[in-house]
Structures
1.
Amino acid sequence: YIMTQLCWDMDQFRYWLDAIRNAGIWLPVDVGIMPILDQAATINMALSRNGCVMPRELCEIISKHWIFPNPFDKEPFDAAVEQKKKDFKEAGIEYTINQIDEYRACGINGIHLYALNKYDDVARIVKESGIVDLI
């Protein structure tokens, strides 16, 4: 089987999947998904780890909940930092569930969630996405 790296860009994924299928590659495909739970972790994974493309919708979620001066600052001067983190996580969970739905619609065979030690959040995503009922 094939297990992909992290991919948030559905257009890019569909293009790749069509290309391998058109080339006669019919191995099962498991997709790597990193749940969107934390601004700094999301940006770090995209920019410094593997150059993952961030689609416009994800960039808009990050921008809407931006923590000033930046999400990497240990002591941000943003008065609404805790609420922004909470709101970002909620928007990110919704984004991740929608992404899972889109991947499933493509006919993928499995999903590899990058849990990153966030068991409770990932369990919620798994449950709410309908992949498996863990509770």
Note: The radius of gyration is 16 Å.
2.
Amino acid sequence: MRLGVLDVGSNTVHLLVVDAHRGAHPMPMSSTKATLRLSENMDDAGCITPEGALKLTHAIAEFAGIARTSGCVELMPFATSALREAANSDDVLAQVRAGSGVDLRVLAGVDEARLTFLATRRWYGWSAGRILNLDIGGGSLEMSNGCDEEPEVALSLQLGAGRLTRDWLQEDPPGKRRVAVLRDWLDAELVVPAKQLLAVGRPDRAVGTSKTFRSLARLTGSAPSSAGPRAQRTLTSSGLRQVIAFISRMTAADRAELEGVSSDRSQQLVAGALVAEASMRALSLDTLEICPWALREGLILRKLDTDLGTDPGAGGTRPIGVPGPTEAVSP
């Protein structure tokens, strides 16, 4: 079965086309991206601007066409924090529906955390034991911890790399004082979430997902993307500190020249690195393993589980939107 996953994030719109079959891992067939920086197309009232909504509608219409010509039997379109938090979210969703025929589904932050956790669990398997997962997006940080396919704790915090760049690090490069103040602020923000995560148990395996973690791991010497998804990649706290000292002195244009750093992510890389560092420090983690699967793969896996008639009460495969044992979203 060929599926298309259309991901509308804070920075990009991403279409992933995969072949997915029972008993096999999803096989990527194509990947198409467009940089929209939706989170930057906001007015002072927190509304997505008319120009931003129009760009989004055109991009989704184009990507839906690509999915059709690619032979997708189903398109799974979803949006995350930028649309979730927009004051005019309903109006933008209606405009997208009218202009493209695509009915975007807005995911709750805790559902992002749960689906990403499912993907990491399937990637590493049951032998991994208790997994703690961190995922840094443009608008939010998702954190989860659990022994099964459903995390015992799933958190979504408004600590995304793009958000913190806009709020804290407007200068290019950011000043030393501003970086130090943001470090202290992040430490304070993560005290309670870290206690919640660790209250259910110390992890046997700590995992990082998302482009931010992959880029940081590459900068500390992990294998390039050309080595394939199965190459082992890690991010250490000591390596991360060295990277922060290096990239925080560079302009966004200079950071974009580094291997593993895309031009559309270079501006928010420092903030993302500081979130990663603060999270690892709060959770007393020396090393994170980098998982190639994340939210999109989690959606595909949940789709296959649902189509195969998996009991929603077994193995942690509850329908999205049903509250779990411990879920929280930052105000």
Note: Confidence is low (pLDDT under 50) at residues 310-325.
3.
Amino acid sequence: MTTVKTYTASNDIESEYSKFTSIEHRKKYAQFFTPFAIADLMAKWLLGNDQLRDVLEPAFGLGVFSRALLNQREDLNIKGFEIDTNILEKSKNIFEDHENVNLQHSDYMYNDWDNKYDGIICNPPYFKFHDYDNKNILKEIEERTSFKLNGFTNLYTLFLLKSIYQLNKGGRAAYIIPSEFLNSDYGTLVKSYLIKSKTLRHIIVVNFEENVFDDALTTASILLCANDNKSEAVQFSNVTSLSDLHKIEGLIENYPNHLSATQIVNFENLNADIKWRAYYQEQNSIKFKHLVSFASYGKVVRGIATGSNEYFTFSLSKAQQYKIDAKYLLPCICKAADVKSPFFTKDNFQELKTNDKSVFLLNAKNPSDENIKRYIEIGVEHEVNKKFLTACRNPWYSLENRPPSPIWVSVFNRNGLRFIRNEAGLSNLTTFHCIYLNMFSSPKTDLLFAYLLTDVSRQIFEDNRREYGNGLQKFEPNDINKAKMLDLEQVDLDTEKRILEYYNSYRQTVLNKTPDESFISQINDIFIEQFTL
């Protein structure tokens, strides 16, 4: 009788690999490993298919999913794809006792389209759209699935779509991917395909108290799919730690029956155009009345993207070093850490200049100036002109046209959105988004900003947040543009006057460096009293 190797139910193999492999190499190949407990859960979904024989692991790595599967079913035929020869050789050694494990040194996205599988299981590479050549991949997917995508689709979602296409009748797929696509603009088309294919069965949102993606700065969702026509609905579940996964095991064991009726949405009621957080998390906005879109007051756009901050940003000493005249320097906030309070004044800007902070951008509007010409040549010598953004500009050293906005809003946050009143009239890099008010809202800038400082405002905006590891939140411009806010037109003149009195008192305490948050609490109470349902 042949003894079949059994694998330990741990990530010891991944830990050992990480010790002797540089982080640069791992980032190059997007090698962020799945905890064995999650791999085992996902394997159980596949094993629930009684016809499971042929399994595909499209991003093999060290084969954590195959190890979990083979621990329970040694007779499976497994095919794995891997593009990194270093990790592939290690995996071949790990699985040398299993003749039914076939590992190929190939890119999954360009190969194997004509084969179908009973089970597909994967933690795909997390690359943004500009980190790989996606034109050929998109073309292939569109031809095979008759579903058009755009060039901003992340690679991990393309892996998912291809795998769904390759499922046999009755086949199952289990994917662990960043939750970002559930609540982002680029995810809309992917969600549309999941609805159209009617293969999605379960989304398990891992709720951000721990990073399941090893040291990758993101949060995760487990997607369980089946090509079996056994369900017309999708169940959403939340888990707050790896120890909660046993709850999901019960759901898997009882499929296609549901153990409860909560957070279950029929395909016909799923809306790809909204953030799917609405299906698995209570929305703060439902507590309030008289809500309007933030876009009715203005527009949020990202700050200036230089393509090379190190090259384009200047402090006074750097300007002196390269003899760049002040008329070629655009005053600009380059780092969020340089803005300490909700009001950024000319005095704050002067203080940053005096402390030799980088608060200028090169604005080479006259390249005939000898010192400007010399600095441009330095950029060419260091190939700044060949970077992703600069290569698309003519001339490459030109700045984006972004006039200063009256309000800034932070991009990354841990304690809710941070709004800044730009009283100094400075430009800003992408560390902040710009808020431009429309002609009707502009006269009410102070009232709007007073509202933006309140907890009520932050709570409602949180419905549109994106979540990353360790409680980090991110807001893209459209996350705010599409967010709800209180309709300030409902505020009568007497109430507006009270709000502005509190606001001006608060502003004065901030400028005096003795901020009194009680004034903002008073404003918050006014909004709660008038707008709470």
Note: The mean pLDDT is 91.
